[in-house]
Automatic annotation (TrEMBL):
Residue intervals of the HTH asnC-type domain: 4-67
Originating species: Salinirubrum litoreum
Domain of life: Archaea
PROSITE patterns with a match to the protein in the record: HTH_ASNC_1 (PS00519), HTH_ASNC_2 (PS50956)
Keywords: DNA-binding, Transcription, Transcription regulation
Name this polypeptide is given: AsnC family transcriptional regulator
UniProt xrefs under SUPFAM superfamilies: Winged helix' DNA-binding domain
GO MF term list: DNA binding
Coiled-coil regions listed in the entry: none
Amino acid sequence: MRTLDETDLKILRLLSEDGRKPYSEIGDSVGLSGPAVSDRVSRLRELGVIRGFTVDVDRSTLRDGTPMLLRLSVVPDDVESVVATLGESEETETVYTTAAGDVVAHVNLPTTDARSWLLDTVSGDAVRSFDADLLTDVETTDAVAGTDFALSCAECGNTVTEEGVTTRVGDDLVSFCCSSCESRYQERYEELKQGV
C-alpha cells in the first residue's frame, strides 16, 4: 500500500490554505500536472483523509458581538448535552471537550454578560462553574504536518503502515494494517451483505 507521502502533505497544506485553489496551481507547486493532483485528491477523499471542502466564515464580520472564550466545568453525565446545546447556538463558533471533561467554547455573544447568556442557553444544573475571557483576536490555522496523519485499520484500529493493504469493499476504499484484518473485514462484509 502506498502511504501518504510528502507530495500528499504539500497538497493538503495548499488545500487547507485555499480549498478552491485550482489543481493546476497546486500542480505547479508540487511538480505534478493538474490531473495528477486531481487523482491524488480523489484518493485522499476515498481514504477519508479529506472529508470535504468547507467555507471558513468569520461570523464576527457578519454581526456585532463580543468574542469570548468560555471554559465550563460540567457535570460528567451532562457533557454531551452541553456540547450539543452550545453547538446549536447561533453565537457559538467552536466547541471543544477536554480530556478532563471540561467544555471550552469560542462564542460571539450579543452581550458582555456571559453568565446571563450561559444560563439562558445551557441548563444551570449541568454547569458546575465557568470562566469567561474576552478575546481580542482570533487566528485559525489548519496546519498540516506529517505527524497528523495515521490511517487507522478499519478492522482493528491499529495504524496502517507500509505493510498495510487498501482494498475496495463495496463502493468504499478501505485501509487495513494487515491481510488478516482485511480478510476478517471482507468475510463480515459478505455475511452482512448476504443477510440483507
